[in-house]
UniProtKB/TrEMBL annotation:
MF (Gene Ontology): DNA binding; sigma factor activity
PANTHER family: RNA POLYMERASE ECF-TYPE SIGMA FACTO, RNA POLYMERASE SIGMA FACTOR HI_1459-RELATED
Coiled coil (UniProt feature): none
Superkingdom of the organism of origin: Bacteria
Protein name per Swiss-Prot or TrEMBL: Sigma-70 family RNA polymerase sigma factor
Domain RNA polymerase sigma-70 region: 27-95
InterPro entries named in the record: RNA_pol_sigma-70-like, RNA_pol_sigma-70_dom, RNA_pol_sigma70_r2, RNA_pol_sigma_r2
Keyword Kinase: no
GO BP terms, alphabetized: DNA-templated transcription initiation
Amino acid sequence: MQGPETRRSLLVQIQDTSQQAAWQEFVTIYEPLVYRLARGKGIQHADAEDLVQDVFAAVQGAIERFDPESGKGSFRGWLFRISRNLMINFLTRQKEPQGSGDTRMLQLLHEHAAEDTESATLFDLEYRREVFTWAANQAREYFTDDTWQAFWRTGVEGESSEKVAADLRKTPGAIRVARCRVLAKLKEYVQHMDPQSLSAKG
């Protein structure tokens, strides 16, 4: 089944250069993904940071031409292809400084074909992680420290309700209620960012 996809309203908003909040939300989710993809290709930190900026400059220049109804794939797949192509361009410049650029590009595409299938899967998994991180940062302010600890320690770190209850001087039932409250708020934020995520499996 297709994984979560960036909500359409955000894609529309980032086409408008005046929508700075929407662009910042977009960058918050996707910047770490592109950076880790570059580092996974063996690109050094400073160069990876520069490539991230190149990728987002390319997105800004082309986003108005992206049509989710075109049948050409998801936005995330489109972004992955932009990132991949810019990274191959970078690797080509590093490995082949003179001439035969087209030949070297084809060779690199062939060499990285299987690897990029795996990279695309990791890109999708990292996206889900970033959406969760973003949602958690948004939801955290709504809860007391005890409520958040009840959720985080049982739902993320895997501690038992009984142990957390003893540490926080609450009942196991109260811990489970607190966890459910936080999860409900997290789902609201995930749904805001990614409407398909709640029905997606895996």
